[in-house]
Structures are given as structure tokens and as C-alpha cells.
Amino acid sequence: MSTLGFCDLTISYDGDSAVSSFNNLVNSGEWLCLIGPNGAGKSSVLRAVAGLVKYSGSVAIDQNEIPATSAKWRAQNIAYVPQTPLIPEDMTVYEYVLLGRNPHIKHFASETKQDVDVIEKVMTRLDLTRFAHRMVGTLSGGERQRLVIARALAQEAPVLLLDEPTAALDIGHQQQALELVDVLRRERGLTVVSAMHDLTLAGLYADRLVLMHQGVCVASGSAQSVLRSETLAEFYGVSARVHHEPDGTVVVIPQRSTSN
Amino acid sequence: MLRANDNFVPRAGTRVAYSTLVSFALLTIAVLVGTMIGPAGPQWWRVPIELINRLPLISVDSGVSDADWNIVMQIRMPRVVLAVLVGAMLSVAGASYQGVFRNPLVDPYLLGVAAGAGLGATLVFTLRRSATENWLIDPLPLAAFAGGLIAVFATYMIGSAFSKARSTATLVLAGIAVTSLTTAVQTFVLQRNNDVVRQVYSWILGRLSSATWGDVRLVLPYVVFSCGILLMHRRLLDVLRVGDDEATALGVNIRRVRLTVVLAATLGTAAAVAVSGLIGFVGIIVPHTVRLIVGSSYRRVLPLSILCGAIFLVLADIPSRVLADPAETPIGVVTAFFGAPFFLILLRVRKNQV
Questions:
Q1: Is this model's pTM higher than 0.95 or not?
Q2: Spans of chain A, pLDDT less than 50
Q3: How confident is the model at residue B28 (pLDDT cuts 50, 70, 90)?
Q4: Distance CA A104, CA A116 (A)
Q5: Contact A133 B236 (CB under 8 A)
Q6: Cβ pairs bridging A and B (under 8 Å)
Q7: CA-CA distances (angstroms) from residue A246 to A243, A251, B335?
Q8: What pLDDT, on the 0 to 100 scale, is given for residue A102?
Q9: Does B296 sit within 8 Å of A129, measured CB to CB?
Q10: A162 versus B40: which is more confidently predicted?
Q11: What average pLDDT does the structure give for chain B?
Q12: B7 CA to chain A: closest CA distance, Å?
């Protein structure tokens, strides 16, 4: 059970406001997706939850205010997949996934049998076992993305933050990665907050979308209510048609301004 | 259900065990050779025979006189043991600095730690060593520690102030600036204290040649303490490799870890500098060679750096005795002779990764 609450969250970098008065409540087991143009403040919201930026207002997991928690507690409760992970090329895949167990290993101790078991399960799950002894630097973009997700899952944290988890992936791997997150969310009751650019995929997987623009939440709700062509035109400056499939899927189709 | 997968358990294990074993064997050989060679004393082949003779229950006639044996035990032995301690310390400190600064090009020398420690030690020399002889704790390593600490923090502050991305080159350049400034201050201090110039210069060029058991006793506790602290952090140094943000998100209190590791590495380096003078490049050659053999994980790099650093310095000390026989070639000259080209190759090969 991990409910994530935002109250009046405001973040500014050197006086420039990045997020202002962000409010939301993400229930345990829910998938919330932040959408919005570049620089809208999506990553900043995620970084605030991960305890990586200073902010005013409140961000709390089950009433535990983030700044009052230790780095270790946060790592046990929140797994964060950054937009551009820093991957040390000459580390093996096994060593990299093992880093995810850090919050569960005592400061100066080594990993236990239990930690190795968790890693083995996660790596099997993400089809990484055969790469275990490969250098991380030799992996393809898609394999790296799976690797970073594997590290996050090895944390066994109830809250999962994903910043552009599918940005580097082709359409097949995008689907695979998001399906996997969704399956795990249902299995383990994970609370997921993601930032995504692909609106159709966002609507397909998330329970709820939050549209941000210049640091402010301008629309929130189901894909049907948020993904409307007027809204997209206003905040993305995009000319797009929104198509509703019979099964409820919302498809966003960009339009060319001039037709030849 | 998942089946146990034989392929899965880290394979590096056997290679590490093998490397450790080979390192121990090499260290033993290096120490033995180190005690066999020298300008005065018994013929080299008599030393191992006499060593066997000294074992309990065995008696072999080695033909080594007591006076010759004294040369081995009181002059060569402390020198070899000191080389073991200093080499181990400088390498493990180098590997640790590379880890906390996420920069493959730093070592105690290039960060200015050695120069800062040198300045601290010089100041103690100007206070006349005889005055401090009866102190309970010798102030030399402590002054060196203070100097080294100030230097490493200055380097770090300048390095991060001038480049937000903390590029590898900026940190090295900052280290050069701090080293130059420190050396300038040291020269100034020496000019005003002509009486200690000779003493300080012979010390700067590497003092392994005049090592005594007293030096070993002086540096031993610092080296053991510092190596212990650094080894305890070896797993955390691996976590730091993914960068400050991600390491924080993985539950590491990076400020505390970085501070502890820098303090421990600097304390050990300062103590080593206090007894041996400035010996460069050990902290860069050894850890990178170790990485080539057992991979880049600090869990293996740190312990093996200790062993290989000891081997390297004991071996480097041998040419320093025989090259210009009977005069001494300073050991710092020998390590720089190998280290400088190695550093250039490293610059070309490794670019920005640790």
C-alpha cells in the first residue's frame, strides 16, 4: 500500500519556476502518466518524488514527507528510472542490476543469497540472463532500457517512477516494456508515475493522465477527457486528429498543415 | 518456477581467486628479491639460505656474518616493508579517488594531495625535528594530513566551480594549479629556512633509501586504518559509478560516502608521503592495470590494488638501488619514468569513462 500525494508542489531552478502548485493524489496500484510539451515540468515532478530536487509544498508517500526520509528509506520505497541513465560501460550486466539491491544491503555488507535470488528472477523476467556477464557498453539501446528497468525492479519498491521509459525504443520494444511494467504493477500492486511523450501509448497504459504546461497542471483525467484535439492544439501547438477506437483506445494522429 | 541457472552465478570469482593467488606469490617473490639486492651486505644468493636457517628447527650454513645479516634486517628489510606499505596505500588511495570523483585520471599526486602533504611536512621540518622527538604522536603525518586535505578540497572546489559537469580534464587542471601554488609556497618557506633545505629535498625525492623500522612503525597504523575504511566502502564505490542522482535514488548518502572516502584516502596518502616523500603515478598505474585484469568493479579493484601496489613499489625500488650504483636513483624518478608514458596512453584510450 503506497499512496503518493502532492500538495501545492512548487519547484524553481535559480528563480525560474519549473513547477507551480502541483496537486494530485496517486492511489496505491494506480498508473498516473504525466504528459505535456518539453520543459513542462514532468521530470521535475518525478525528481521531487525521488528526493533529488528542493521544493516547497508537500510530496508524501503514505504521509511520509520526502525531505524527512533518509536516502535509504526512499530507495526501499521508490524506484526511479531517469530519462538518460548514466551507464558505466565497463560494468557487467549482473553488476549493474545488483546496484538495485543497494537499499536492502547493509552499508558495509555484501549481497546475500536472497538478493541474488531477487536479481535472478528480475533478470529472467526481463530476458537479460544470457547477458549476465556481458559488459553493459556492448548492449543495444533496447537492451539497455530493459537493463535500467531491471535495476529499478530489483529495488522491490512499491512506487515506480519512469521518466520517458520508452524514448529510446522501437515500437515493439516500447510495447514490451510498457506491458511488462503493467503486468508487474498488477502482480505487485505497484504505484506507477511515468512521464511520456507518446500520447497514444500514454492513454493506452495509464489509468489517468495529467497534462502539464509551463509547470502547471492544465488537465487531468482519463485519456478520453484529456486527449482532445483542442487541448492538444492549445498546449502542444500541434494540429492533430483524435480518433476513438470502439474499445475505448484513444489514438492521436498528427496532421500535416499543408496537404499536397 | 525458476530453475537455478549455472550460468548465472558471477563467473569472475575464479579469475579473482587466481589473480589474488598470483599477486600473493609475486609479492612474496618481490619482497625476497628486495631483501637480496643492495650495494653492501652479503652476496644475494646467501640471503634466502640464511632466511631458511633462521626458520625454527632448521640449520643451514649460509656463511652470512652477523654484520651482513644486520644490513639485511636493519637496512634492507625496513626499506622493503616500507615500500610494501607505501605502494599499497598510494594505489588503493588512487583507486578510491578515481571512484569518488568518477574520474580515471586522478591519483594522490595529480589531485595535489601529495604536494599539500609535502608542504605540511615541510612546515614541520622548519620547526626543527628535534623539538618534536619526544611527542607522543609524531606531528609529521598529521601536518601532512592537514596539508593534503586542504589541497584536495581546494582542487575539488576549483574543479567543480569552473565546470558544472565536473569534466575529468577540469579536475586534473585544478589539481595542477593547486600543486603549483603549493610548491611555490613550499619554495618560499624553504628559502626563509635555509638550514632545513637539504633535509627537505632529500625527503621530497623519495626517502625509501633511508627507511628505518621507526618509519614503518610510524606509517603502519595509518595505512591499516585507511585501507580498512576504504575497503569497507568498495561496494558503495560501485554504486557511485552511476552518478550522483542515481546513486542517491539507490539509497546512498553520497556526501557522507564521498567525504569519508576522501578523508581516509588523504590520511593514508599523507602518512605515506610523510615517510617516503613524493612518489608519483603509483595510484594511477596500478589500479588501471588491475582493472584490465579483473574488470572495473571496485569490489575487486580495491583489494587487488593493495596487493599490486605493494608489488609495484617493491620492484620499482630495485632499479632505484642499482641503476646508479652505488648512488641512489630517487624512487620517484623511477615511478615517473614508467608512469608518465602510461598516463599518456590512458588519456588516449579511456577518454571519459571510469
A1: no
A2: none
A3: very high
A4: 12
A5: no
A6: 98
A7: 10, 11, 75
A8: 93
A9: no
A10: A162
A11: 84
A12: 8
B287 assigned to some structural domain: yes
Q: How many Cβ atoms sit within 10 Å of the Cβ of residue B333?
A: 18
Q: Do A92 and B12 touch (CB under 8 A)?
A: yes
Q: For domain A4-254, give the CATH superfamily.
A: P-loop containing nucleotide triphosphate hydrolases (3.40.50.300)
Q: Note down the domain range covering B93.
A: 82-350
Q: Chain B residue closest to A98 (CA)?
A: B239
Residues of A in contact with B256 (CB under 8 A): none
Identify the CATH number of the domain in which residue B106 sits: 1.10.3470.10
Q: What is the ipTM of this complex?
A: 0.88
Higher pLDDT, B58 or B312: B312
Is B47 a domain residue?
no
Domain count, chain B: 1
Mind listing the pLDDT tens digit for each residue in B200-226?
Answer: 776 776 667 778 898 899 899 999 999
pLDDT at B173 over 90: no
> Does residue A69 belong to the interface with chain B, where contact is any CB pair within 8 Å?
no
pLDDT surpasses 90 at B122: no
Answer whether B295 sits within 8 Å of A92, measured CB to CB: yes
**Which member of A75, A110, A129 has the closest CB to residue B249?**
A75
Using an 8 Å CB-CB cutoff, list chain A residues near B5.
120, 124, 129
Residue B213 lies in a domain: yes
Q: Tell which A residues from 216 to 235 touch B, by Cβ distance under 8 Å.
A: none
Q: What is the DSSP letter of B73?
A: I
pLDDT over threshold 70, residue B58: yes
Domain ranges of chain A: 4-254
A103: chain B residues, CB-CB within 8 Å = 250-251
Counting other chains too, the contacts that B38-44 makes at CB distance below 8 Å and 24 or more residues apart are B38/B71, B38/B75, B38/B76, B38/B321, B39/B321, B39/B325, B39/B326, B40/B71, B40/B75, B41/B68, B41/B71, B41/B72, B41/B75, B41/B76, B42/B68, B42/B69, B42/B71, B42/B72
Q: Is residue B40 included in any domain, yes or no?
A: no
| Cell numbers that stand for B344 in this block | 599518456
